[in-house]
Amino acid sequence: MSHHIVQAEDLHYTYPDGKFALQGLSFLITHGESVAIIGANGAGKSTLLMHLNGVILPQKGMVRIGEMPVTRETLPNIRRTVGTVFQDSDDQLFMPTVFDDVAFGPLNLGFPKEEVEKKVRETLEKVGALHLINRATHRLSGGEKRSVAIATVLAMAPDILVMDEPTSNLDPKSRRNLIELLKSFTHTKIIATHDLDMAMDLCTRTIVLSEGKIIADGPTSDILINEQLLHKSHLEKPLSLQGCPICNKK
Q: What's the pLDDT score for residue 245?
């Protein structure tokens, strides 16, 4: 199962304006792990995720998916292995209808049209969006776009699922449905999120970023009760760990 492994070694990236986005990140994520990437805005979470499928290539250091380094030459294979749900769903939806968007990936992988139609319907049903199949993508709400964007990735049957703020724009019921759906994805999951309650539900391991550096990496249950670490990272304990504000009143 080496093709499910994600590894970074001394990864650096600096934006054209001179801002250091990533400063020497190293980690190894093995098959089947569910890993949350947390940190304040600007900590480097999205930049890191964009390195995992080659949207951004390393300036220094290395990213490896299985046995393959992420390079311009390996991108076709990398993107068949790593499915990425971007933070802004509009970056992912570009076809006239929902059906066309979800079918785009499987068709480009050479699946027969009959099989693609079945896969599109099954995937949209999984994310609770089958009723949107013929809808124009520009007529979707923010939450609907998020569900369809996730479907476009799941339809590709990736070995590794990478998600940037997957619960943004979702109502509580849709958020709960997404969490249950992601629990059923048994391969490697890497999720950048501010939703620390979701991280508790889904991820056994958490990596904390601050100013482009890893400042903690360990069991989620340990990291999310560490108030000193969370304060240093400009984060707060998950709501489920804060207790009732009325009951705790003195």
A: 56
